[in-house]
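Batch 3, record 17
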Amino acid sequence: MQSVRSLAVVGTMALAFGIASLDAHAAGALAGTDIESTAEVTYTVGAVNASATSNTVTVRVAEILNVVVTVQTPTVAVSPGDTAREIVCLITNTGNGPETFRLVTDNAVGGDEFDPAIASPSIYFDTDASGDLSAADTPYVAGGNDPVLPPDGSVTVLVVNDIPGTVVDGNRGFARLTADARTGSGAPGTAFVNAGVGGTEAVVGLTGAAASGQAQYLVTSLTVNAVKSQVIVDQFGGSRPLPGARINYTIVVSATGAGGTASTVLTDRIPANTSFVPGSLRLNTSALSDSADADAGEFTTTPDARVRVTLGALTQASGNQTIEFAVLIN
Amino acid sequence: MSQGKLKFIAAAALLAFAVDSQVLAADARCISLKSMAEVEREIVDDKGGKSVKRVAASKVVPGTEVIWTITAENTCKQASENVTINNPVPAHMQLVANSVTGAGSDVTYSLDGKAFAKPDQLTVKENGADRKARTNEYKHIRWEFKNPLPAGATATASFRAVLE
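Prediction for the assembled complex:
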């Protein structure tokens, strides 16, 4: 009877998994995880079936130190004398254990025309996740609130610099943010004994456990020009400015220089002693309605009679924006 | 049978059933099974010569290839037959293609630990169609040794797997 029970045990595969769950993880198996393996053998001696299991071998996952810095604003258009202009960077822990990172800015980067002046504080956490510097954002203090990131975890930071007043159009100023693992960084393969999670080694990964992101501030003094011209058509087939004559205005707006505007709005008053001709407003030959609605233009009487056309972001590549409208001489 | 052994059996009978059964099954306990995990390290000697040495793998980082070796030694005076070694691919590890060895054995694999087959017969359902399973999807390895393992002899099985 007892030997029959033994046979029943033999018939069962002895699977020995130390870890039941298989966490799919971009950073790899989590540091400190114990991986166990046990082999099993079945055999027969004469007519007797038997089995045995091996010792259980345990391999502990050591910590690998890796970090990536991704610049989300590679080029920031600035003007001379600007203050507190931010670069947005994403710092991601691509190692397999929780890690604390130290952040350092460096603007003495070669190959540019000026060095942005490091603001104080120079790095902020994007606490309110707005993507830009705002009152709610917490300043970073080296050694005080170094970001602690779980494996695959990331944090957005804003690197803040001032632009010298002496720079000129087209100048570039490079700014760099470096994040390095507090446990240690250096050549890939460098090991820090007992420094990893669960008393394991911490080993520097292929990123060197330090990463930099570089962005450029580009000085752009963009000029927006508007050139207005008129054609008078009188009711007698001539071009005299008689009461009742129609004046057709054309305004050509163009941007020249590097960079672009965030938004351009053209407003032009209707001259005294004239009346706007309803339905005459056009942008690049397309008719615009007089009311304030989905299209770019409107005619309004508050605070006084004027036309208003929203041109949006303009760059030199946008080319000429031609606005036309007409008035009648009272 | 000596008096000492009789006393031993009497004492064993008082123990819990599981222990008791193992004692009686000891008649057939011929194979001692050992499992081992190693990694390869490149060693550079004083003359700059390089060689690869295997060292015990106790702590490894993701991406490391670990060599798992299982040895079965027949400690009895008679041969063991139908020797079959089973080893799951350890958790968080991916079997390396063409890394499984086991002289004198037929090797089969399983995706679920139940059905074992040769690689070309292992399929995975993907988007409603069957495709051949990839090596890193094998979860279990089985070595079936074709010949009896003689008294005192050792059979070896090994595989390599990379830590995710």
